[in-house]
Model the fold of this input.
Amino acid sequence: MISLVGEWLTDPANWSGARGIWAQLVTHLQLSFLALFLAALIAVPLGLYIGHTGRGRVVVVNLAGGFRAVPSLGVLFIAVLLLLPRLSGEAAFVVPSVIVLVVLAIPPVLSGVYAGVQQVDPAARDAARGMGMTGGQVLTQVEIPCALPLIFSGLRSAMLQIIATATIAAVVGLGGLGRFLIDGQATRDYAEMAGGALLVAGLALTVDFVFGLAQRLVVSPGLARAE
Amino acid sequence: MSVWGVPLGEVWSLTLDHIYLAGLPLLIGLLLAIPLGWAALTRRWLYGPLIAGTGLLYTIPSLALFILLPGILGTQILDPVNVLVAMTLYTVALLTRTVADGLSSVPNHVRQAATAMGYSPLRRLVAVELPLAVPVISAGLRVAAVSNVSIVSVAALVGVSQLGTLFTDGFNRNAMGPIVLGVIASVTLAVLFDVLILGVTKVLTPWQTAGRSA
Done:
C-alpha cells in the first residue's frame, strides 16, 4: 500500500496540468493566505484596540473559547446552503468557503493580539509614557513589538486552522490539495487519498515552519530569550 | 418522534458515538501525556524534542490524519479505531506540554518537603505533584475536550458515523435542519464535557474554593 502511495506521488503526470498537484498546491496557498489576510485585517486592529484600552476583554476571551467548540464542517455546509442559490459559477463554491475560513480564523488571531498587548509589562508601558510618548507611540513602539510572540502564535494557529478547513472544503467543491482526498475517496483510490493527505500534512508543517522562521527574524532577541 | 427531519433515536445513537469517539481518546491521551510530560520535565534533554514532536502532531490537519492512519495501522478506512487513534494523538499533543507546565508549577519547597518525608520519586509524583498540578492540567484538558468534540465531526467525511454524519446527510439532501441540529448537538456536547471537567476539577482541588466561602 505504501509503495502505491509512493508511485502516485512520484508519477510526474500527477504533478502537472490544471488539476495537478502543483496547481492545487498554489490554489491551496492562495486561498489560505487570502483568508489569513482578511481575518488579520479585521482581528488585528480590533485586538490592538481591546488590548490597549482593556475594553471588551470578556468578549474576546469567551469568543476564542466558544469558537473552538463550533464544528467547521457544519458551519461550512450551512454557509454553502445559504449562499449557493445567491451566487453563480466559480464564486458559488469559493465565496462561502472563504467566508467560513475567515470567520474561523478571526478568534485565534484576535485572542493572540489581545493577549500579547495585554501581557506587556506595565513597567515598560509606564516608562514609555514617562519618556513622553503618546498613546499611539506606546502602542506602535512598545506594545506591538513586545506582543509579537503572542501575535505570531495567534497567526500560526489561525493559519493551521485555515489550511485544515480549506482541505475539508474540497467536499463543497473548493480547489486545493483537499481535492485529492475527496476525489480519491469518490473513486476509491487510496493511493491518491493518502498521497493528498501526505501533501496536506507536509504543507501544514512547512507553512508553520516558515512562520516560525519569520517569527525569529521579526521578534526582538531580548524577547525571544525569555521564551 | 423526530426533530428537524431526523428521528430522535438516530440523534441519540449518533450522540453516543460522538461521546465515545471524543471522550475515550481524552482519557487515554491524558494517561499517556502524564508520563510523557513528567519525562520532559525530569529529563531536561527530552524536553525540547518531546514538546516539539508533540507540537508537530498537532499541525497535521484532521482529515489528512484520518486518511493516513489506515495506511499506517493496516485498518480499514471506515474503522472507528482510526478516529480514536487520531484524537488520542491530538490529545497527547496538547497535554504533554500542559502536564510538564503543571508539574513545574509545583513549588520547589513542597517537592523538597515530600522528599524529606521519605517519598520515592514515583510516590511523590502521584501523591504530591500531580494533585497540585490538577488546575493547570485541567485547563489544558478543557481545551483538548472542546476541540476533540468539534474535530471528531470531520470523520463523517471518511464515513465514520457520529454527529458529523448529520452534516453530510443534510448537505446531500439539501436540508438545513439536520445540519443545524448537528451543530447545536455538537456545541452542547462540548459544553457538557467542559462542565464535567470543571466539576471533577472542583472536587479534586478543594483548596481552591475553600478560602472563598469563608
Observations:
- The mean pLDDT of chain A is 90.
